[in-house]
Protein backbone atom coordinates (compact mmCIF):
# COMPACT_ATOMS: atom_id res chain seq x y z
CA UNK A 1 0.00 0.00 0.00
CA UNK A 2 2.91 2.36 0.45
CA UNK A 3 3.68 4.49 -2.56
CA UNK A 4 6.61 6.73 -3.30
CA UNK A 5 4.34 9.69 -2.43
CA UNK A 6 3.67 8.18 1.01
CA UNK A 7 7.40 7.73 1.57
CA UNK A 8 8.10 11.31 0.54
CA UNK A 9 5.44 12.67 2.91
CA UNK A 10 6.77 10.47 5.76
CA UNK A 11 10.26 11.83 5.15
CA UNK A 12 8.98 15.41 5.01
CA UNK A 13 7.18 14.93 8.33
CA UNK A 14 10.40 13.69 9.88
CA UNK A 15 12.30 16.80 8.74
CA UNK A 16 10.41 18.97 11.23
CA UNK A 17 12.75 18.09 14.09
CA UNK A 18 14.28 14.69 14.42
CA UNK A 19 13.67 11.21 13.07
CA UNK A 20 10.86 10.60 15.58
CA UNK A 21 8.55 9.12 12.94
CA UNK A 22 11.05 6.38 12.15
CA UNK A 23 11.55 5.56 15.82
CA UNK A 24 7.84 5.54 16.66
CA UNK A 25 6.71 3.59 13.63
CA UNK A 26 4.56 3.85 10.59
CA UNK A 27 1.47 6.07 10.46
CA UNK A 28 -1.59 4.33 8.98
CA UNK A 29 -4.99 5.85 8.28
CA UNK A 30 -7.81 3.85 9.83
CA UNK A 31 -9.70 4.06 6.53
CA UNK A 32 -6.78 2.32 4.79
CA UNK A 33 -6.72 -0.44 7.40
CA UNK A 34 -10.46 -1.11 7.69
CA UNK A 35 -11.60 -0.50 4.06
CA UNK A 36 -15.17 0.31 5.18
CA UNK A 37 -15.44 -2.57 7.65
CA UNK A 38 -16.06 -2.22 11.39
CA UNK A 39 -13.32 -4.63 12.49
CA UNK A 40 -10.05 -6.18 11.39
CA UNK A 41 -8.03 -9.07 12.75
CA UNK A 42 -4.38 -8.34 13.54
CA UNK A 43 -1.92 -11.21 13.99
CA UNK A 44 0.94 -10.69 16.44
CA UNK A 45 3.31 -13.53 17.38
CA UNK A 46 0.78 -16.05 16.06
CA UNK A 47 -2.08 -14.63 18.18
CA UNK A 48 -5.21 -13.02 16.73
CA UNK A 49 -6.34 -9.62 18.01
CA UNK A 50 -9.57 -7.90 17.01
CA UNK A 51 -9.40 -4.16 16.37
CA UNK A 52 -12.86 -2.66 16.00
CA UNK A 53 -14.60 0.68 15.65
CA UNK A 54 -17.33 1.21 18.26
CA UNK A 55 -20.65 2.96 17.76
CA UNK A 56 -19.03 5.99 19.46
CA UNK A 57 -16.31 5.98 16.75
CA UNK A 58 -13.57 4.79 19.13
CA UNK A 59 -11.09 1.99 18.61
CA UNK A 60 -10.97 -1.09 20.84
CA UNK A 61 -8.33 -3.82 20.63
CA UNK A 62 -9.19 -7.19 22.19
CA UNK A 63 -7.55 -10.59 22.20
Short overview:
By secondary structure, the chain is of the alpha+beta class.
Model description:
The chain has 63 residues and is α+β, with helices and mostly antiparallel strands. The protein has one domain (4-62): Ribbon (Complement Module, domain 1). It is 33% helix and 27% strand. The chain has three helices and three strands, in the order H-H-H-E-E-E. It has helices spanning 4-14, 20-24, 30-34; strands spanning 39-44, 47-53, 59-62. Strands 1-2-3 form a three-stranded antiparallel β-sheet, with no helix packed on it. The longest helix has 11 residues, at 4-14. It is globular, with a radius of gyration of 15 Å. The two termini are 26 Å apart. Residues 12-16 have low confidence and may be disordered.
Key terms:
alpha+beta; globular; Complement Module, domain 1; 3-stranded antiparallel beta sheet; 63 residues; 3 strands; 33% helix; 3 helices
Element layout with pairings:
Elements: H1 4-14, H2 20-24, H3 30-34, E1 39-44, E2 47-53, E3 59-62
Antiparallel strand pairs: 1-2, 2-3
Low-pLDDT ranges: 12-16
Q: Percent of residues in helical segments? A: 25-40%
- Taken as a percent bin, the fraction of beta residues is 25-35%
Extended strand count: 3
What is the string of helix and strand elements?
HHHEEE
Instruction: Please name the CATH topology.
Output: Complement Module, domain 1
What is the straight-line distance between the termini?
Answer: 26 Å
Assign an overall shape. globular
- Computed CA radius of gyration, to the nearest angstrom: 15 Å
Order of adjacent strands in the largest pleated sheet: 1-2-3
Structure annotation, total helices: 3
Indicate how many domains the architecture comprises.
1
Task: Report the major sheet.
Answer: 3 strands, antiparallel
Amino acid sequence: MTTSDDTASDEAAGDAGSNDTKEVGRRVLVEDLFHGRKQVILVHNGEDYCLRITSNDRLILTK
